[in-house]
Design a protein that fits this description.
single chain, about 300 residues, mainly alpha, MetI-like fold, 2 domains, globular
Amino acid sequence: MSHKSAVNGNRGQSRGAKWFSSWNNYLFVVPALIFMIVFIGFPLLYNLMLSFQNVNVYNLSGKHDFIGLSNYVKSLKDPVFYTALQNSAVFTVLSIFFQFTLGFALALFFNQKFPGRNLFRSLMLLAWMLPVVISGTIFQWMMSGDFGVINYFLQTLGIIDQPINWLSEGSTALLSTVVANIWIGIPFNMIILLSGLQGLPEHLYEAAKLDGANRLVQFRHITLPLMRPTILVLMILGIINTFKVFDLIFIMTAGGPVNSSTVLPIYAYQLSFTTLEFSQGASVSMIMFLILIVISIGYLRMSSKEEVH
């Protein structure tokens, strides 16, 4: 009986050790979970709750009644919302296209072996390493209509006759912010794509060369298909990061002139902290969140199809 008791005791201890070991793994997730609940989950839920109420500077300390979708309807009826939505779409599409195209070209270039490759590749990262406040201020100075270096060079080359107020004219303000954002995002695209290129198997290219395939054929039939998962990840990250850009545009134009460079984050900021319509600003933020959720779901469906194939 004592032997059986000892065996049962050992089994009980082993089960307890396994249970503790399995739960011990989850303890490592607790700090990240607490961080997400406090700094992501709670603000998101509070913002959602705020969007269904009527909270502004006049009743901030009073009772806030539930008003349903009124804030969303009001936002969707505001012409400025559609201006901001269109500007966000233009800003995102142009930025992503040129960031990806130029980043891919640089990644292909730096994937070759030549003297000083690592040095030049490190220098390319400076645009990404600089704080956005500094980058935005630099471009604000460069595009100044009075003393900007861009106007100086264009006039010197004879391309323009008189200075252009790049940031204070409605036809050029948004495009000026796009140029700045492209410059900031190229290094990130280059590094991600370069890491993907360096992981491609060399024997496929060697076999293609033996078959007489030139560089263009290799790029089309080997590089692009194998880089598709990396490109999808880069695209979804780029769309999310670009669609919610606030600081760069706020520094350069603050959404002006006359909402010509107002994007959805700027519009939500203006509602919440300029006109002090907190609930309506929260509704615009939630609309932005829903747009990004739809884009993310589309990415997940595309990536699942990639895994099936």
